[in-house]
Amino acid sequence: MKTSIKKLLEDVRDGAVPVDQALLALKEAPFEDIGFAKVDLHRPVRQGAAEVIYGAGKTPPQIVAILGVMARHGQNNAIVTRLSPEAAQEVNAAFPIEYHAEARLGLVGGFPKPDGIGRIVVATGGTSDVPVAEEAALTAQMLGNDVLRLYDVGVAGLHRTLSHLDELMSASVIIAVAGMEGALASVVGGLVDCPVVAVPTSVGYGASFGGISALLSMLNSCASGVTVVNIDNGFGAGYFASMVNHMEVKK
Amino acid sequence: MKTSIKKLLEDVRDGAVPVDQALLALKEAPFEDIGFAKVDLHRPVRQGAAEVIYGAGKTPPQIVAILGVMARHGQNNAIVTRLSPEAAQEVNAAFPIEYHAEARLGLVGGFPKPDGIGRIVVATGGTSDVPVAEEAALTAQMLGNDVLRLYDVGVAGLHRTLSHLDELMSASVIIAVAGMEGALASVVGGLVDCPVVAVPTSVGYGASFGGISALLSMLNSCASGVTVVNIDNGFGAGYFASMVNHMEVKK
Amino acid sequence: MKTSIKKLLEDVRDGAVPVDQALLALKEAPFEDIGFAKVDLHRPVRQGAAEVIYGAGKTPPQIVAILGVMARHGQNNAIVTRLSPEAAQEVNAAFPIEYHAEARLGLVGGFPKPDGIGRIVVATGGTSDVPVAEEAALTAQMLGNDVLRLYDVGVAGLHRTLSHLDELMSASVIIAVAGMEGALASVVGGLVDCPVVAVPTSVGYGASFGGISALLSMLNSCASGVTVVNIDNGFGAGYFASMVNHMEVKK
Amino acid sequence: MKTSIKKLLEDVRDGAVPVDQALLALKEAPFEDIGFAKVDLHRPVRQGAAEVIYGAGKTPPQIVAILGVMARHGQNNAIVTRLSPEAAQEVNAAFPIEYHAEARLGLVGGFPKPDGIGRIVVATGGTSDVPVAEEAALTAQMLGNDVLRLYDVGVAGLHRTLSHLDELMSASVIIAVAGMEGALASVVGGLVDCPVVAVPTSVGYGASFGGISALLSMLNSCASGVTVVNIDNGFGAGYFASMVNHMEVKK
Amino acid sequence: MKTSIKKLLEDVRDGAVPVDQALLALKEAPFEDIGFAKVDLHRPVRQGAAEVIYGAGKTPPQIVAILGVMARHGQNNAIVTRLSPEAAQEVNAAFPIEYHAEARLGLVGGFPKPDGIGRIVVATGGTSDVPVAEEAALTAQMLGNDVLRLYDVGVAGLHRTLSHLDELMSASVIIAVAGMEGALASVVGGLVDCPVVAVPTSVGYGASFGGISALLSMLNSCASGVTVVNIDNGFGAGYFASMVNHMEVKK
Amino acid sequence: MKTSIKKLLEDVRDGAVPVDQALLALKEAPFEDIGFAKVDLHRPVRQGAAEVIYGAGKTPPQIVAILGVMARHGQNNAIVTRLSPEAAQEVNAAFPIEYHAEARLGLVGGFPKPDGIGRIVVATGGTSDVPVAEEAALTAQMLGNDVLRLYDVGVAGLHRTLSHLDELMSASVIIAVAGMEGALASVVGGLVDCPVVAVPTSVGYGASFGGISALLSMLNSCASGVTVVNIDNGFGAGYFASMVNHMEVKK
Amino acid sequence: MKTSIKKLLEDVRDGAVPVDQALLALKEAPFEDIGFAKVDLHRPVRQGAAEVIYGAGKTPPQIVAILGVMARHGQNNAIVTRLSPEAAQEVNAAFPIEYHAEARLGLVGGFPKPDGIGRIVVATGGTSDVPVAEEAALTAQMLGNDVLRLYDVGVAGLHRTLSHLDELMSASVIIAVAGMEGALASVVGGLVDCPVVAVPTSVGYGASFGGISALLSMLNSCASGVTVVNIDNGFGAGYFASMVNHMEVKK
Amino acid sequence: MKTSIKKLLEDVRDGAVPVDQALLALKEAPFEDIGFAKVDLHRPVRQGAAEVIYGAGKTPPQIVAILGVMARHGQNNAIVTRLSPEAAQEVNAAFPIEYHAEARLGLVGGFPKPDGIGRIVVATGGTSDVPVAEEAALTAQMLGNDVLRLYDVGVAGLHRTLSHLDELMSASVIIAVAGMEGALASVVGGLVDCPVVAVPTSVGYGASFGGISALLSMLNSCASGVTVVNIDNGFGAGYFASMVNHMEVKK
Prior knowledge:
The first copy, chain A, is about 40% helix and about 15% strand.
């Protein structure tokens, strides 16, 4: 990218670009032209994968407007997170989206062909953790990943976990989603040798404190190879796992 | 016991006991004589098992004095908990005790012959949990239990846990001792069908918060049949497990 | 159980079982056949006692389906926990259950004949703690226990507690249910010599912090022989107490 | 007191006091002369009772200086709180004090003759709570109260508490000092009908969290007539109890 | 009271009372007859003052039933606390009560003639604290106290506090009710020399954490003579202040 | 101001003012006349700026009454904070106000001409933070400040923050409003050299704990020149920033 | 500053600067030359005021090295914060500093002549808060402010606070330093009409929780015009107050 | 691996292995031989990379013993974490290790040749975070990664962060290590498009609460692509980053 500044400077030297115009160029696209291009694009996505809109803080009209802009720029795949059913209906009236109520995700464009290194396994401790897991799984699918769901394999019935050992060990990345005491992350982390992204959920009652118990449990996991995202942050786990699953040598 | 009051009243009626003496009797042993005997004895122990002295809040001379009183009353077995090495040395100079430095226990009298229903298994997640586990194990032994130690069988290497499945399943009661994320209790509770007493330990760093993470994890265990004691309370777990292991039909 | 693997191996040796079939057997029932039988059955229950379904994370159709499977396998007794009145009504339309609104429990099959060692006493500090206590008491009854309820015997009127001393002392296990400052567990634990399972409740306001005050109080009980379950976890206490009350010598 | 301002104004009117001098008087003793006298004296004490110096934030020379000023103004009784043994020794070299190591109190002047309404009973749950209790008891004695100590009457052995019922019921005010689960306050509050000042102590370990457990327990006491001071604040309890024990009709 | 046991024993001796009847008497009223009379009555109240029913955990029919029992025993004054408007209406249909919506109190019988030592002043920091203050003030009035209300005298406008100094200093006991930072208790405690009972309220937002900020502030008050009750516990403060205001010499 | 007391005293001396009248004057305006004038006025505002009414704890009629009093005294500008839409409608029926629903502010009188030292910039991390930011911005405008809004410039897209560097650096005071991890305050504080008032918001979920995460982040800001107000306290930030922006040399 | 880029571009156009050299210039001082000068200088200080070195995370040799670089660049005034006595001695051996042990500050260069708008008043609640206050006061002095210290004017003796009202009201900015319940900030904020920067200190015990109580109290201050810094962050308060006291119109 | 069981079964069938020997084989290496090989090896490492020993809970003799066993099995590279200088010295006397005091790591064997996908960048906010960063960096190096250290690039001087943008953007994985408010993770996450592993450190004071502030900040990061490990867990971050940097297609 520095070459583009060099090119600009050469143009200035050669009189091809007047000083004021060069100044303007440096100012208007200040970061892109001087090496901050990645910054400017912020969340660069691979071809065909989806752009992300955080839906929680936006009104349906705002979401529709953003989707419109994206569509005009040829970005035809999008994920709208934390979208309520009501907002989804309102958005859909103006811009067709595919709404997944459980995960509270609105999707635009179909799932791209998976192009990651391997498979992402999304496992949950119980059935109550499924909404968060779906947010993670659908996000990963929209970002071009092959996803395998292993739900309700919590450690209270350890045989359930163990009976899926083959599938767990086939994963490139595992997203372990669990509430209550969140032991799934440690047990899975103790069984496999791939990165495990742990998602604590707010499932539970009493001393689960809205997910704090699971969060602390996962942060203190005695198994190596486990990192943690925010409580109920299925999207973040899916996004991160997709990044890991698309690792490639940088030139 | 009510019969003893009845007897007293009959004696009063018959003139065998003067009113004032009866009044004094009712007053001096108020609870024992009128049905509160268990209260008065407070911690009744089976023949041969040890009496307990909480050592933390007592000076060596106080401990020596109590041990002396007990000895004079024929109570020759005792456990002194939370006893520092320095205090142990000072006590030992006046009253011979057997000091277990790791568990910080001072024992008087040998282990009684086990007379419980079955075996108490004391398992730990890691080697750092051993001091708390020893406090539990020695307490249980002093209270007349057959104790099996399974140390360092934490879930980070789940195979270690599973390779001791036979021993775990042979237990009448299991004491699961673990710090960090405390997942051992849930995993063990998900493997066996006997009562599990979970002891969170203060082992760990950062977000283990001195045992809070393990404590919350254990309280939120998705496995049934798990109860919890205070952080690092090996004594309490050993005492409770011994009670359970000595259950008998009350007449 | 190891004998069943031995038998399988002998059959392989004798040609009675082909290698592939033996491999499949080891794989299909991997844990049961190689010593994990208990794992597979997970929550083995005594004859006639109830199986447990955690209702909170399941839809009525899911619950009906599970009850159906259980019925087909001859399991005619069941407890569905944390069942809302609305869900209970929906379940009941498809599969008859007996709903206890206060305890939020759905029961299938009548109470089995008590076959425990002794009696379980469920005591509460106040009337507001009764729903949690009923969850514990009904669970224990469904699991084959003789249960005595002592409600509203909190320590603010210590004479109420003391006037039930005989009944407290007749218990094999006591479940002490209390909110606010949770002192009931310590006072009961200081009066009796049987295991006490303490259940903190979310009853209270202000600095009771949804049960944290009672939870901490119970964890720090100065009385020996007290363990604790999660806030409002009546089911867990009933289940654990039943385990204790059915202790038996293992062969 | 307003009369003193009136007097000043009359003196001004009569020329007995020049304006500037009156202005100075109003300024120098601004609050005392205009109705804030109590403010100015801050901690007004009854004749013979002790003045209080909070020792924690002061150097020995500062404490000596203050004691000197007090002595020069005829205040011969003083309490220095939270005084370390080292500081006490240093103070004592310059100004004779009577140091109570356990309570960390330095006392000047003997105990005044008790002149309160009744007796203050200071009760503790265990022996470890005694230092805080002594701070309360000595403070109350220095402020002119008849004090009865009932130590180690905690609820783990409820008969111990009950065997002192007469003494508890003889109190005008009770100071209940306890760590761990702090149930003593509720039990005592449920037995007596006089004000109970509860002092949580930092005695305990694990989930006692340096006194938080006892503090919350006491704040949530189901017994009426209980108020609470800061953790380990024996002085505050003794001071408050003395105030209550010296209630009198205001004119 | 011991004399009553003595009398019973004398009657037994004299044959006036048969042994079995004496035994029954000792058992039926176990605590009253053997010195626990105060316990049995639990909350003994002065003539004409109100009995208290904690309304939160009780249904309207339960409350009506209790009020009925009390009425039959000649207890015509009562306070029902934490009574919702709906419950109040339902109770009132069966048993006439005077409902104070703001304080959520139901009162039976008029205010008794004040018979305390002096006056109780109830002060609040802001207008939002008034409901809790009213609970305190009405409770105190029902228990026979002269009550002065000083509302909205918080320290943000210190002149408001100071302008009521005369009234504050006329109090025998002050109840300081404040949310947010709860500084009122310290400021009032620094101005007067009578006992101050501080009531933190849940008024505030953000880092007030439902009253925790005010609670901690009050517990840490640098002013002596301040004790604290639970968040929003106006009743407890009124009850305690009334106890203090009715201190009398015990025989 | 002391001169006014002096004048009063001279008048007393000269007989121009009788003693009783002087006493009354000292009493009725106790603080103003003796140097506490600022106290009495409490929140003195510059000419034309708005008076503030905290709306949360007040009923619409109370607010109307206060606005009426203010109007009668010529105070025609007012801010009513934390006003719900329903309350706003009710107030407006009796006293015309301009209601800003997002900021929950009711304004009386137009914005005064800005007369501060410079410009106040109000920046937010995301769009969800805008309501709190508007409360800050409108407050500052009502108090006579030139306000520039920079919304949605959070650090997740650092280029967005940086692209407004000129505007940020033009500020006299910056109000940085952010939820979630609250990094905006540190980043802005690390870019500019003017005072930054950080406002944590309750925007976020899971471990944002209602704004605690942002609050802690801001309190721990590694950038100098940052102070913090309560969670969601837009008003406080606007008020404080206005104070800073109106600094002037005191005579 | 943009002109400097323009100049560079013109030089390139004119051939005065080769393209590669211009490219290097843009790269080596990337931000300064393109408008980020303030960023580059980071903490620009007025002539004669001190540069700041955060001493906690640096070894004495590192500090000496930085001081050396600064000296070589003509920066002769510096503040080294959080400097232990041992580190100070070691630094001083290599580079003369003036060490203030109480405030743990190392100062280089004398205090500059005050050039702020007005006076900064630093007030403390007690004597234990003085070290933090000194950190604030010395920082402000080193940054060119006239500082007045008002120590030990806490609200427990409100008359002490009020007797300094004149001085408080003379301030341009007030730094209120207090531990325990931190009420000083609210009381001062309720008395004055200038910005108040509140500094909670870790002074106290028990429920002061290392400054949390004071922190929460200050964040919830009912007085307007109060912002808060981190616990014990005297430096931050002094730095911020100096910024406010040096406000000036930006061109 | 299943083939090895098949082989064993075939050997049994063919009489090559007796039944008892086969049973023993299945039992002695129960998981490895029946498909749990990965479990048994637990932390399988690539050729030449280091095995890990958690040093905190082990005595020097234990560590030496483990290193000895490893050496005998040809594992010549090892990392011993959380090793105190004293323990390191003791270990080193028996088994030569290379001790890195700052990171508290003992290393055996040199760094292997990096064989990861790309480069791991370890960045810190300040110099105090370096020990934790070194633990991460050395761990990653021992596990076969090319590591670039960017220390002291915190956001308080944002230009420092930005001036390393090229290096940050060259990373395959970034480990962001920061204490205090932990904003570095968000800022870095907002600049790059590779996975960021955030490590909160316990660096800071007051409301940093031993790393909680940074931890919460990182969990709530508004930037996507950020996961978090435990406070001060440099090892965990290095291990996880290495896993990610060694992602490969699974067959």
